[in-house]
Amino acid sequence: MSLGLTAYGVAATLPMTENPSADFSDTPWWVALIKAVGIFVYLLLSTLLVIWFERRVIGRMQQRPGPNRNGPFGLLQTLADGMKSMLKEDITPANAEKLIYTLAPLIAATMAFVSFAIIPLGGTVSMFGHETPLQVTDVPVAVLLVLAVASVGVYGIILAGWSSGSTYPLLGGLRSTAQVISYEIAMGLSLVAIFLYSGSMSTSSIVSAQSSLWYILPAFFSFAVYVITMVGETNRLPFDLAEGEGELTGGFHTEYSSMRFAMFFLGEYVNMFTVSALATTLFLGGWQAPPLVSAINDNMLGGGWWGLLWFTLKLWMFMFVFVWLRGSLPRVRYDQFMRFGWKFLIPITLAWVVAVAFIRGAQLGFLGDSKLTIAGRELSVATVVIVSIIAVMALAAAWIWDDKRAAKAAAEDEAPPEEIDPFEDGYPVPPLPGQRLAEPGPRLGATREPVLTTAGTSRTSTAVKEEDHG
């Protein structure tokens, strides 16, 4: 069967099996509204639970108990913290742009919730006599819409940094801008392979296309790149450069307090759920049951409301990865983060997209049956092109590795820096390039010899001289 795909006005006909999208024909508006409210409550409860989960897991990693006072096992600690934030004083700086300062946290939190409307949480279920999918809506370019809405949510962080009227929030907003521009490109490129394999950008169609094989296997490199970029997109450790406490004293939300401060954290955790849900949808089969479970009694545990259970389990697997990274890795330097994105991640992802395009073209017969004779053997053009791309990627990786090794060896061969005494001329002087401060010696007071005063008590020679001058 030929499936006509149209993206950005360019039509292409691919000979592949058609993947049906979600059917909303039997979904009245009030059922869609109930689903929207249900997803909102689902995200709120999940956020409350994941904050408790994060604090308990990190406490365990650091050999301490974590929250265990409010409620059983400390489950009500997050709720108590939220009530405490509501009762705190809401302060607006005198130099702030008050309207934008107020709207910024609302933009960040609202866009995080909107993105989840396009994610399929389950298959078709019966709600109040209507057969409807567990998804608020779906569009032919659903994945691009999720990326676009996530980018709009970053405007909340940028505007918060600018409108606070302070230096540190502004620097945090600028970092967030560069971070999103850099890693949104790599994230979008990592998803191109999924579009090529599924032949669609609809989330429900992509889930249907994974009924026989999850895309994490043929597109594992795309999955690895997406996981790296989703951590950078959500400003989480080790990529939380927009709010680095050691450098920017809190970054873009330094001047915020009370519920405005809490709104940023709500948006951050909901964004974590959104990118995790997108990874589940694109790489792990979405709401579909694992292969071994789906084989039980003709997928008895894979349809209907069971899909919500499998989707939630996969979602929380990614949330554990977020928590694990926070408890294990230190924050990277800003220049290292930018260099990694522009000089390594984007180029190698571009090469991967080209390789996947040729692989899919060969599978679908677009490259024809042309043959090349190499060393007396006939090889297809597709095979030669794919092997050439892999060889170029390997050579590029080897060149980057050798360049780093040469730079490290050159740094080790440099002469040791000259030691200087910053107080040699009486005034402190900072070290110049190629110099370093001398190691501090013993304290001056430790070398003074005590002298015996007339009263028989021990006094230092410096104290005696001071009294003589007095």
- Return the average pLDDT rounded to an integer: 79
Low-confidence stretches: 1-17, 461-470
Strands, count: 10
Spatial strand arrangement across the major sheet:
1-2
- Our count of helices gives 14
Separation, N- and C-terminal Cα atoms: 105 Å
Structural class: mainly alpha
Shape: globular
Radius of gyration: 30 Å
Strand content: 5-15%
Order of helices and strands: EEHHHEEHHHHHHHHHEEHEEEEH
**Helicity level, as a percent range?**
55-70%
Give the biggest sheet.
Answer: 2 strands, antiparallel
Number of domains: 2
Description:
It is built from 14 helices and ten strands. The protein is mainly α and 470 residues long. It has two domains: 21-332, no CATH class; 357-403, no CATH class. A two-stranded antiparallel sheet has the order 1-2. α1 (29-61) packs across α9. Mean pLDDT is 79; it is low at 1-17 and 461-470.
